[in-house]
């Protein structure tokens, strides 16, 4: 092989070679990068002692085969809800010596549909439902029947539970499933029960639920306040100690990350993400330490990922509304967007929702930060919303295109 590089100085080959040489020279700033993974649970969880103790107390009847109260964990994103629930459930699971008592964890956003959520609960309980071919209510009946006829005592963590009901399309089915589950213990004999740990960061969750379901889910509530910048610093310092070699992350960098992640509300996920991505950028550059500009670059990249995640987790009608908005170069009023939306529905052969529903979807997308929909006065038409994209158009389109169900529209 011609090591002088036939493409000449500064050719592609040289660039690639330099990347590998940099990587080789660097002594590596990571000591244990797993510590920065999103599902890593630290040994020591600062600032959540109260929430951990309360949740453990509420769940403690489980060890005697008695149904605990349903409990609802709420608080903004990145405040440790998932981590605390998994931590306490993990300890509980290791304490149990009884095969009738089961603990299941399901992330309702990741499972996507009510059907899939029930399917996963069934799976944990040893019931393999068919992927398709039976109706949702039939699946629900079978899973509940399986639990009761086996005398199982189930504690189920429904993480991001708002995703069972946050879209008009699945609202009724999600409510029904939750209703049946909250009622389960009261009519089944044989010691069988279902208790629910619901988790949500969505303040509008209550509006999506039937009142009786909402009250049934909240025998107890545990609030997770945002972290202060000072608390984020402590959390970061612990991670830095475990994840990086000494000297790779200065106090200045830790403080800067904490300030950025605490800017809106104290979000520990954002803090840990920034730390990880900044570390990866520094490593790629062959640098021995993370710099402020690495963190800035990481912030831009984390921001892009957030948009991607927000878009890809939208239900189909929400995606179609977003696509409709993006199809216009200029801000449009709701009427035009609705027309475009119905065209897309027709092209895909799906039943369009009503214009009122679409208006409320537009408001939801506004709250998510994907759309901007201020109310404006428009002469003789009175007050109307002017809707436009709140994220870069090309980027949003690229994420929408990844959806199998709607990619034919492109
Ligand atoms: N007190 C803490 N100590 C150490 N790490 C923490 C703490 N709280 C949160 N984290 C870390 O922050 C990240 C986010 O926490 P978690 O996933 O539990 O947030 P959440 O409240 O479930 O957010 P969301 O509502 O977005 O799901 C995780 O990586 C977790 O390890
Ligand atoms: Mg969570």
Per-chain topology:
Blueprint: H1 12-25, H2 49-59, E1 71-75, H3 81-95, E2 101-107, H4 108-111, H5 114-124, H6 136-149, E3 153-159, H7 171-187, E4 193-200, H8 205-208, H9 211-217, E5 220-224, H10 229-243, H11 251-261, H12 268-284, H13 292-312, H14 316-326, E6 332-333, H15 334-348, H16 355-367, E7 371-372, E8 375-377, E9 383-389, H17 393-401
Parallel strand pairs: 1-4, 1-5, 2-3, 3-4
Antiparallel strand pairs: 6-9, 7-9, 8-9
Bound molecules: adenosine-5'-triphosphate (ATP) and magnesium ion (MG).
Describe it.
With 410 residues, this protein is an alpha/beta fold. It has 3 domains: 19-36 and 227-309, Helicase, Ruva Protein, domain 3; 49-224, P-loop containing nucleotide triphosphate hydrolases (Rossmann fold); 314-409, Arc Repressor Mutant, subunit A (Orthogonal Bundle), CATH 1.10.10. Helices cover 51% and strands 11% of the residues. It is built from 17 helices and 9 strands. It has helices at residues 12-25, 49-59, 81-95, 108-111, 114-124, 136-149, 171-187, 205-208, 211-217, 229-243, 251-261, 268-284, 292-312, 316-326, 334-348, 355-367, 393-401, and strands at 71-75, 101-107, 153-159, 193-200, 220-224, 332-333, 371-372, 375-377, 383-389. Strands 2-3-4-1-5 form a 5-stranded parallel β-sheet, with helices on both faces. A hairpin with a 5-residue loop joins strand 8 (375-377) and strand 9 (383-389). It is globular and about 70 Å long. The structure holds adenosine-5'-triphosphate and magnesium ion. Residues 81-82, 159 line the site of magnesium ion.
């Amino acid at each position: 092989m011609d090591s002088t590089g036939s493409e000449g100085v500064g050719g592609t080959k040289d660039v690639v070679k330099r990347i590998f040489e940099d990587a080789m020279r660097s002594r590596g700033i990571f000591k244990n990068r797993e510590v920065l993974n999103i599902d890593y649970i630290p040994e020591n969880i600062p600032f959540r002692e109260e929430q951990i103790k309360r949740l453990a107390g509420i769940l403690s009847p489980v060890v005697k085969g008695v149904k605990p109260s349903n409990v609802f964990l709420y608080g903004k994103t990145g405040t440790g809800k998932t981590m605390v629930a998994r931590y306490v459930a993990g300890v509980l699971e290791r304490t149990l010596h009884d095969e009738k008592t089961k603990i299941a964890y399901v992330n309702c956003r990741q499972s996507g549909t009510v059907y899939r959520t029930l399917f996963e609960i069934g799976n944990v309980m040893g019931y393999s439902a068919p992927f398709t071919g039976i109706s949702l209510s039939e699946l629900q009946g079978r899973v509940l029947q399986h639990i009761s006829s086996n005398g199982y005592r189930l504690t189920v963590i429904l993480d991001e539970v708002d995703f069972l009901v946050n879209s008009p399309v699945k609202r009724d089915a999600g409510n029904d499933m939750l209703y049946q589950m909250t009622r389960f213990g009261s009519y089944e004999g044989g010691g069988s029960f279902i208790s629910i740990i619901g988790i949500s960061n969505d303040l509008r969750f209550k509006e999506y639920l039937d009142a009786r379901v909402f009250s049934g889910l909240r025998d107890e509530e545990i609030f997770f306040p945002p972290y202060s910048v000072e608390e984020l610093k402590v959390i970061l310092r612990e991670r830095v100690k475990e994840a990086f070699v000494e000297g790779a992350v200065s106090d200045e960098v830790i403080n800067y990350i904490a300030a950025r992640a605490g800017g809106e509300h104290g979000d520990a996920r954002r803090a840990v993400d920034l730390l990880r991505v900044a570390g990866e950028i520094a490593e790629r550059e062959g640098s021995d330490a993370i710099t402020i500009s690495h963190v800035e670059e990481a912030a831009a990249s984390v921001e892009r990922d957030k948009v991607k995640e927000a878009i890809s987790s939208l239900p189909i009608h929400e995606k179609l509304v977003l696509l409709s908005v993006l199809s216009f170069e200029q801000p449009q009023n709701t009427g035009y967007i609705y027309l475009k939306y119905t065209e897309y529905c027709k092209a895909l052969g799906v039943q369009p929702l009503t214009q009122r529903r679409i208006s409320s979807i537009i408001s939801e997308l506004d709250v998510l930060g994907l759309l901007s929909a201020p109310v404006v006065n428009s002469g003789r038409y009175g007050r109307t919303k002017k809707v436009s994209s709140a994220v870069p158009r090309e980027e949003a389109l690229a994420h929408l295109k990844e959806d199998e169900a709607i990619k034919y529209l492109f």
